[in-house]
């Protein structure tokens, strides 16, 4: 009896997801220097050889987690109401992410802190961000009927929205803003952008 390709693909995706989650969890617990491929594989319940079938090293596995957050953002954008202006959609998504204390926001904060602490991750982040940002730019272009090969708009929206959320999160983590919630800072960031940062 043979396994259908669909089932094989689902098993591969599940294994990869388990490895990515294990890598992110261990990196948060021990710092990247304290993590090994063996430990990631053991946490995910697979062999080290299986780990290397999916990732060249621990940095790639941790960055895959961050890339997954971008894929989630793209999914949220596709799920927004069709007639909603794209800037409102991006603001709503950013607010959803930072107002979920037990989910995406915790993941975002801990991953950002991890990236800042690890030169090895920062060095590899650039190539990941190029891939991930292109997905978001294409989703914005599709929603706005623009062409990212000739129009600045999709890329500008992507950079502005992501930077607004990143700036708000960084200020919230610093604990110096006086804001009562990260969502308050996200709202302020998007409002300042609406006004053109005059």
Automatic annotation (TrEMBL):
Keywords, sorted A to Z: DNA-binding, Transcription, Transcription regulation
Domain of life where this protein originates: Bacteria
DNA-binding region boundaries: 36-55
Record InterPro entries: DNA-bd_HTH_TetR-type_CS (IPR023772), Homeodomain-like_sf (IPR009057), HTH-type_TetR-like_transc_reg (IPR050109), HTH_TetR (IPR001647), MftR_C (IPR041347)
PROSITE patterns the record matches: HTH_TETR_1 (PS01081), HTH_TETR_2 (PS50977)
SUPFAM superfamilies in UniProt: Homeodomain-like (SSF46689)
Domain HTH tetR-type per the UniProt entry, residue ranges: 13-73
Signal peptide span: none
PANTHER family: HTH-TYPE TRANSCRIPTIONAL REGULATOR BETI, HTH-TYPE TRANSCRIPTIONAL REGULATOR RUTR
Protein name: TetR family transcriptional regulator
UniProt organism field: Rhodococcus indonesiensis
